[in-house]
Amino acid sequence: MFNRKECGERILDAREKNGLSRAMLAEKLGITEKYLYQIERGEKGLSTERLVLLCEILGVSADRILFGNEPSEEYGAIAGLLNRCDPKKLLHLESIIKSFINAYYE
């Protein structure tokens, strides 16, 4: 279940693990440092667009930020590889993965 205070705590934790100051992350997100502080305290929320950007900057999933769910090691490794891929090549990779899964489960 979503809890804004816990969500803010996870953002703070991820920011610190990435070695970013509040000012640095706020600048990357295009918001004020005060607003980011309020988000980390659970007093304010993020737009969908800023949530996606935050996840990209911090290298975490929205599922982790919003609900605290940790991906499995396998998922994390695959997601990390996909995050480093050229976006234009992701559609090709998606096609390959779908073909592999379909063949595997036939």
Reported for the largest beta sheet, the result is:
none
* CATH architecture annotation name of the largest domain: Orthogonal Bundle
Mean pLDDT equals: 89
Structural class: mainly alpha
Strand content: under 5%
Oligomer: single chain
Distance N to C terminus = 36 Å
Q: Unreliable segments (pLDDT under 50, ≥5 consecutive)? A: none
CA-atom Rg in angstroms: 16 Å
The percent of residues in helical segments reads over 70%
Number of domain units:
2
Write the element-wise H/E pattern from the N-terminal end onward.
HHHHHHH
**Strand runs, count:** 0
Query: What's the name of the CATH homologous superfamily of the largest domain?
Result: lambda repressor-like DNA-binding domains
Strand-helix topology:
Layout: H1 4-17, H2 22-29, H3 33-40, H4 48-58, H5 62-67, H6 73-83, H7 87-104
Helix pairs in contact: 2-3
Task: Summarize it.
This protein is mainly alpha-helical and 106 residues long.
Overview of this protein structure:
The chain is an all-alpha fold and 106 residues long. The protein has 2 domains: 4-67, Orthogonal Bundle (434 Repressor (Amino-terminal Domain)), CATH 1.10.260.40; 73-104. Helix content is 72%, strand content 0%. The protein contains 7 helices and no strands. Helix 2 crosses helix 3. The longest helix is centred in the C-terminal third of the chain and has 18 residues, at 87-104. The radius of gyration is 16 Å and the shape is elongated. The termini are far apart. The mean pLDDT is 89.
